[in-house]
Amino acid sequence: MPLSHLPYAFYITLPPHYQLGMIFPTTLRFSCLTLLLILTVDKLGAQKVATPVTFRTSAEMVLIPVTVTDHNGKTIEGLRAEDFNILDDQKPQRIASFGSEDAPCSVGLALDISGSMQNTLSAAKGVVQAFLRTANPDDEFQLLTVSTLPTATPGFTTDIAVLEKTIDSARPGGRTALIDTIYLGLSRMREARRPRRALLILSDGIDNQSRYSQGELMRLALEADVQIYAIILPDSASGGANGDTVPFRPRLVGKPIDQARDRQGPDLLEKLADRTGGLHFRVRNDAEAQEATLKVGKALREEYLIGYQPPDSGTAGKWHRVSVKSSVPKVNVHARNGYYAP
Questions:
Q1: pLDDT averaged over the chain?
Q2: How far apart are CA 68 and CA 326, in angstroms?
Q3: Quick one: DSSP state of residue 291?
Q4: Domains annotated on the chain, with CATH
Q5: Over the stretch 133-171, which tens digit does the pLDDT of each residue have?
Q6: Which residues, including other chains, have CB under 8 Å from residue 109's CB and lie 6 or more apart?
Q7: Consecutive H or E run containing 258
Q8: What local confidence, expressed as pLDDT, does residue 225 receive?
Q9: Residue 261, SS3?
Q10: Which CA distances in Å does 36 have to 39, 141, 168?
Q11: Rounded to whole angstroms, how far apart are CA atoms 32 and 40?
């Protein structure tokens, strides 16, 4: 597996030349003439040639992307390693590496175009287009649409103009296979070429079509090296969010069991974001949706990458619960809550 495809929250083993910051040639090619010359060298000189020494060095590290925000969801920059504390299975860990940079991302864009988005699809399209304008020139994207069947554009692309054209042509309709679409998006992340990976979901959270369960989706989300961000829009039955002045209202018509089911979707999106280190926003109108989009874009650009040497678990596949905290007062720390040991 290429180094760039290794998950952040898994062990990373680097060969010696990576650790020393040097590049050594891996293949030496000799012509037949050169080989004959070597074979005719004085035997005494040949005896003095030292036998190459083989070094076996590994550097195991767990890398955790971390976003820090204030109470308004605005990211906080300029923090240092000493501002953080990490617990692995409730045991304090020494931070071995720390950094912050605007690295290129592979981003899946899950846009809900189902019938429940009849009144909010226009706003959702504007959110996606605003997010694309925050992109790093080296970012790559894949568009997924939520409807009766989940669909995805073939592969990742850096051509934003083509993506925007595809988004403009989307029309609302069909049932809502939201869980299946998120599952597809996480699975497609295996094709991503950037080490930093995220999935942005724009939906009202309703699901009435998926075959995968919430538990199956959560398991995949915890295994994947993908941060999930969710912008949760009001559904059509809640009054819509077509203008800046339309407030979000809970569903006024419907049985209590239907209301409870409708709440499960948004709650699931929030849990996915919390457990993978992403952010989530429930918005009531276009203005709040646009503001949330900018916050998501900045969070992707301004996150910290914290590394530590993992404790010896003794069991392959064991779940390690991770907790990242900051000594800085009145901030919120967003990081995935664990990883599976390889």
A1: 80
A2: 9
A3: H
A4: 105-301 (3.40.50.410)
A5: 988 899 999 999 999 999 999 999 999 999 999 999 999
A6: 128, 131, 141, 142, 143, 144, 163, 200, 202
A7: helix 256-276
A8: 87
A9: helix
A10: 5, 54, 68
A11: 13
pLDDT band at 12 (very low <50, low <70, confident <90, very high): very low
Say how far apart CA 104 and CA 107 lie, in whole Å: 10
User: What is the pLDDT, as a whole number, of residue 46?
Assistant: 36
Which strands sit side by side in the sheet containing 105-112, from one edge to the other?
Answer: 151-152, 140-146, 105-112, 196-203, 227-232, 280-282
Residue 157 DSSP code: B
Contacts of 106 (CB under 8 A, 6+ apart): 139, 140, 141, 142, 156, 189, 192, 193, 194, 196, 197, 198
Give the three-state DSSP class for 179.
helix
> What is the amino acid identity at position 334?
H
Beta-strand runs (E) in 127-226 = 140-146, 151-152, 196-203
Q: Is pLDDT at 14 greater than 90 in this prediction?
A: no
Tell me the sheet residues that pair with 326.
84
Sequence letter at residue 192:
A
Q: How do residues 273-310 score in pLDDT, each as one tens digit?
A: 999 999 999 999 999 999 999 999 999 999 999 999 98
Contact 179, 112 (CB under 8 A): no
Mean pLDDT of all residues in 110-114: 97
CA distance 170 to 165: 9
Mean pLDDT of 242-262: 43
State how far the Cα of 284 lies from the Cα of 263, in Å rounded to an integer.
15
Structure tokens at 215: 């538990």
Rounded to an integer, the average pLDDT of 36-57 is 34
